[in-house]
Amino acid sequence: MIKFDLEKLENLLNDFYNLSGITVSIWDADFRQLAYRPKEMPKFCAMIKSTHTGNARCLESDTKICAAAALAGKPVRHICHAGLSDVAAPIVYDGSLLGFMMFGQIVDAHMPAAESFDQIKRRCADLGIDRTALFSAYRELKFSDEHLIASASNILEACTHYAHFSRMIELETGQLASEIDRYISERLDQKISVDTFCAKFNVSKNKLYFVSHQAFKMTVNEYILKKRIAKAKQLLVSTDEPIYIISAKIGVPDYNYFTKVFKKAVGMTPRRYRKEGGTTL
User: Fold this and answer.
1) Distance between CA atoms of 33 and 171, rounded to whole angstroms?
2) For the segment 89-112, what is each residue's pLDDT rounded down to a tens digit?
3) Which CATH number fits domain 174-275: 3.50.50.60, 3.40.30.10, 1.10.10.60, 1.20.1070.10?
4) Level-2 CATH architecture, domain 2-171
5) Helix 194-201 vs helix 174-185: angle between axes, to the nearest 10 degrees?
6) Closest CA to 238 of 277, 209, 204
7) Which of the residues 33, 201, 269, 280 has the least number of beta carbons within 10 Å of its own beta carbon?
8) What is the percent of the chain where pLDDT is above 90?
9) What does the pLDDT read at residue 173?
10) Is the pLDDT of residue 278 over 70?
């Protein structure tokens, strides 16, 4: 559904890194890292991630900032578990989340190195890493002030728009949308949930919502209801079946509820719709 042109995206990350000297990466909407520049991470981060606990904390920290950026709809900055600054920006198209760009592993340049490292040392004390080696790696990190971080954040946000505009990220929703439509049509008499779709088509809820908005211009549940009502209208004018039978056939066994949602969608009750031969208000 979402196609990432990794070669072009890696070139974009290269340009960002060459200009700023700041590590930068791109992630999909499920918080999986797709590309990273430079190819070799800073020694400090490599040392942290070499431990099981440190690696788990890095993943949790990255996931949290991406989730916060998705919620805010704009770049978000935070201090990671090891005490470094990171910024993440969501990649959004037509209200749907496609992924993220992130830069970071930055040290506050206004704080003396020894003082800053004392804080980091406390954060990482339980990882069992040699402090002398960790301090040496820490001094190799990028030291940046607030103005540089703010400027880099603005450029990162511009890159998220450019990535989609220049088709580095393309949307491929047609085939899956057709399969979803067919799946619904064949099971209108059954209970259909978002979790059912996610399991059936092996997609996340984010991706399912994205495809639904792109293909149907509404949520999945709204589209299911639309197809139920359309089927009910067809059965009302083409058969003499009792309305409660038709209600059950479209997966709404509660007759009173069916009448309520039908009237809201069509503008009249099922009984009146049948009487008037399918004429809507």
Assistant:
1) 19
2) 999 876 667 889 999 999 877 776
3) 1.10.10.60
4) 2-Layer Sandwich (3.30)
5) 120
6) 277
7) 280
8) 49
9) 62
10) no
